[in-house]
Design brief:
Blueprint lengths: L1 H9 L2 H35 L37 E2 L23 H10 L13 H4 L1 H7 L2 E3 L2 E2 H19 L9 H9 L1 H8 L4 H6 L3 H33 L2 H5 L2 H19 L2 H6 L1 H22 L4 H20 L1 E11 L4 E6 L10 E8 L5 H5 L2 E4 L10 E6 L3 H11 L2 E2 L5 E15 L11 E7 L3 H13 L8 E10 L7 H10 L4 E10 L9 E2 L3 E5 L4 H14 L6 E6 L2 H12 L3 H7 L2 E5 L1
Parallel strand pairs: 11-12, 11-16, 12-13, 13-15, 16-17
Antiparallel strand pairs: 1-14, 2-3, 4-5, 4-10, 5-8, 6-7, 6-10, 9-10
Helix pairs in contact: 2-6, 2-7, 6-7, 7-10, 8-10, 8-15, 10-12, 12-14
Length: 602
């Protein structure tokens, strides 16, 4: 009796609920701090009229007359001209490595660009620029942006460690999980809303802090693992306690305990199904367990303990709102699929959707065709939009052949139809498109003085949409220096892109645009007869991002730019880490002189 009384006094019944509520309040305060830090950039973005209604919903608008930006991939060669230089290939079976050589191609002169900009009769309104916090506290953010493991930076690790510390403190302060397992249950219940919020595609927290849902998904996985572990500790504590007291069978017979076991099974299924091994081996199993487990758990938690109802209600509000918005952002329409063998991808053209996205955003695509198979019909995959809005071909996606689903789509696109004159018109299919999502958040690329895009393989889609947007709006843009650095395996990957590159360079009249392509494997006679326009270069070997960043900063300084350099990277994780390290260690004085260097990892 005395031990029970002392236990009651050391751990009052309302302390469990109080600590759980204080934990949620502390998390809400931290989110509010990040939102306040992001507020100036959000205000600066929406101060630009062109940014207010873009990036929210896909739609079709009637096109006004605009300078055309060709994104047609049908024509893969350029004819010779007085300002075009042929590639001189010298391939030999006995040679090792890359043997292709290229005559020097002239870049567009920066001085001419400055004079043109100075004398332009179309002087538009310059966008409002607000630098990232990383530009103001560079030494600190430089350390936080260091990659520690895979996709996690030091900042991610620190944030998750602080989160775990708060959870562990509230879970174990003046509490023994084997004798007082109720505390852990309260803490687990308090985290239910956050698990669902960070899992939503239309993430209200992401909107507040200025990042897409895909950047916050690591927190969803982390909090989910904490909750799974906590739920098991909660259950094991009660099993231990009842076993010692000899009441295990009696307690397990109670209905609310059985509902608690149902909730525990749902959590464990979610935890096991979300492991990297299961996701890579069976993505459909991951989806099924996530949908069913997250839905059934909500009911089981309420029947287990009525105290869970407020937390479950909050999760249902965010979960339901997310799905309502997803329905509103979903379009069912017709798309044309075209194979691009040189790049090993499928080009998806959707003419009925030509507006509503920003550069770098992606959509979730479902192909409604029996040619995808039964499971293929149920799968949805994200793809970055590869072109600027308001063009005749509408939205363009470039889907790399990288798995079973994308391989089936490529094979489906290969079953092409031919028009009246024998020209290829592609394969028409019905598709479900949801989005747009992600992107560069509250960053306004046109407010920077210079831009560098370092991409690898199919990551060129991000650079294409971004540069097309800058070229389209250059009268209202501060950007005067643009470099694209593209790393590919084979020279043949460049072939279908030459026409688009030529169009971009030709139309970039106010900004100096250069496109540098690097390949690591030569193909025997694959590109004879192909010509490159001025401003486009092709070189063997790996790309040197440090050299190009130095050149962009120098050109921006010479042009009088002082609103910073935007660096976008999209490609393999190793490339992202390399570019991140280069930006982080760049000379501090030159960084300040140019207005800062800000990195976006797509």
């Amino acid at each position: 009796m005395s031990s029970t009384l002392s236990e009651h006094l050391s751990n009052p019944p309302d302390l469990d609920k109080t600590l759980a509520n204080h934990l949620d309040i502390a998390i809400a305060i931290i989110i509010a701090i990040f939102a306040l830090l992001n507020a100036p950039r959000a205000i600066a973005r929406f101060a630009n009229h062109s940014e207010r209604f873009r990036g929210h919903a896909l739609r079709y608008v009637s096109l006004r007359h605009r300078p055309p930006i060709s994104t047609n991939a049908d024509s893969i060669q350029l004819h010779s001209g007085p300002e075009k230089f042929a590639i001189n290939f010298n391939t030999d079976d006995s040679s090792e490595g890359c043997s292709t050589t290229l005559k020097a191609l002239p870049a567009l002169p920066l001085q001419a660009i400055r004079n043109t900009a100075r004398n332009s009769a179309f002087g538009g309104q310059q966008p409002v620029h607000m630098p990232m916090l990383s530009s103001l506290v560079h030494p600190v953010t430089g350390i936080l942006s260091c990659h520690i493991h895979a996709e996690y930076t030091a900042g991610h690790i620190l944030l998750m460690a602080a989160y775990a510390a708060m959870v562990f403190y509230c879970g174990f302060y003046r509490s023994n999980p084997f004798s007082q397992p109720t505390r852990v249950g309260w803490v687990v219940a308090s985290q239910i809303p956050f698990v669902y919020i960070f899992a939503s595609k239309n993430n209200i927290l992401g909107a507040l802090v200025g990042v897409g849902y895909e950047k916050l998904n690591c927190l969803h996985r982390f909090i989910g693992r904490l909750v799974v572990v906590g739920a098991n500790v909660h259950a094991i504590g009660y099993v231990y306690k009842w076993s010692i007291a000899g009441k295990l069978s009696t307690e397990l017979a109670q209905p609310f305990i059985r509902w608690g076991l149902v909730a525990l099974v749902c959590f464990d299924l979610l935890g096991i199904g979300s492991t990297q091994f299961v996701r890579s081996k069976s993505y459909n199993f991951f989806i099924i367990t996530h949908v069913l487990g997250s839905f059934v758990f909500l009911f089981a938690a309420c029947y287990h303990r009525p105290a869970c109802v407020p937390y479950v209600a909050a999760a249902c509000v965010f979960y339901g709102l997310d799905h309502l918005i997803r329905i509103a952002k979903t379009r069912i329409t017709t798309a044309t699929l075209r194979p691009i063998p040189e790049l090993g991808l499928t080009r998806v053209e959707i003419p009925s959707l030509n507006s509503g996205w920003r550069a770098g955003q992606h959509v979730r695509l479902r192909v409604l065709s029996t040619g995808m198979g039964f499971f293929g019909l149920t799968e949805v995959h994200p793809f970055t939009i590869a072109n600027v809005e308001r063009t005749e071909e509408g939205m363009v996606l470039m889907c790399k052949k990288a798995g079973r689903w994308t391989t089936k789509m490529y094979e489906l696109s290969a079953a092409e139809k031919y028009g009246e004159w024998g020209g290829k018109v592609g394969k028409s299919v019905r598709v479900m498109v949801e989005g747009p999502y992600g992107g560069i958040g509250n960053t306004v690329m046109s407010s920077y003085s210079g831009a560098l895009f370092v991409v690898g393989g199919s990551g060129i889609t991000f650079a294409l949409s971004a540069v097309q947007e800058l070229v389209r709006s250059e009268n209202d843009s501060s950007v005067r220096v643009i470099d694209i650095v593209w790393g590919i395996r084979s020279v043949t990957s460049l072939t279908p892109m030459v026409q688009l590159f030529a169009s971009l360079v030709e139309q970039s009249t106010l900004a100096r645009l250069r496109i540098s392509v690097f390949y690591t494997r030569a193909s025997m006679g694959s590109s004879h007869g192909m010509y490159l326009p001025p401003g486009v270069t092709l070189s063997p070997g790996r790309l040197d991002a440090a050299k190009f960043l130095d050149d962009v900063v120098t050109s921006t300084q010479n042009g009088g730019g002082a609103t910073g350099v935007f660096v976008g990277v999209c490609g393999p994780p190793a490339l992202a880490r390399e570019v991140g390290g280069i930006v982080r260690t760049f000379d501090v004085l030159r960084r300040k002189m140019v207005g800062g260097i800000e990195l976006h990892n797509e």
